[in-house]
Amino acid sequence: MSMLRRVTAFRNYSSASISPNWLRKIGEREVVGHGVNGQPSYQDRIDFPLPAIRFKPNTPDIKILREKEKGDWKQLSLAEKKALYRASFGQTLAEVSAPTGEWKSVVGWGLVFISLGLWLQMYIKLFVYDERDLPKSFSLESRQAQLRRMLAFRIAPVTGLSSKWDYEKDEWKK
């Protein structure tokens, strides 16, 4: 009978239907709203601060506090108000939005992977590639000849390489 009450209670708050599979997952927790996309789930989120189900299941202590809650709130002590809040929510919004320090591990692992990549590059350069096996275009003479050809063809004359070359004096501009 309690399962039927929970389904009926959920349908009073939402147009979505709840499957028995969800009932098994949420256990004895009370369905109090529509939830994200109509799903009865609990998440502490800043953008959706009111979850569909309560954080903790209804215990006898919580049931007594819920009955007191229906009366005057001035009769409740601060500890009782906090207990009611913690029964409905796992964290306060301040706790949810507090920095976790996770960025430190992300930066640390990023630096580890960058250093591994640099070590791999150094290993390959020292032990895998041999300078004798490189193409002729990698030699200093070939690169200087390529620079001369680019200057002769006046490549990028406005802001590029040719704009920095003095063709009359045959040297770089000062």
From TrEMBL:
Pathway assigned to this chain's UniProt record: Energy metabolism; oxidative phosphorylation
Membrane topology: Single-pass membrane protein
Record keywords: Membrane, Mitochondrion, Mitochondrion inner membrane, Oxidoreductase, Transit peptide, Transmembrane, Transmembrane helix
Entry-linked InterPro entries: Cyt_c_oxidase_su4, Cyt_c_oxidase_su4_fam, Cyt_c_oxidase_su4_sf
SUPFAM superfamilies according to UniProt: Mitochondrial cytochrome c oxidase subunit IV
GO CC annotation, single: respiratory chain complex IV
Compartments, as annotated in UniProt: Mitochondrion inner membrane
GO BP of this protein: mitochondrial electron transport, cytochrome c to oxygen
GO molecular function: oxidoreductase activity
Highest taxon above the source species: Eukaryota
Principal location: mitochondrion
Function, in words: Component of the cytochrome c oxidase, the last enzyme in the mitochondrial electron transport chain which drives oxidative phosphorylation.
Similarity remark: Belongs to the cytochrome c oxidase IV family.
Subunit text: Component of the cytochrome c oxidase (complex IV, CIV), a multisubunit enzyme composed of 14 subunits.
Protein's name according to its UniProt entry: Cytochrome c oxidase subunit 4
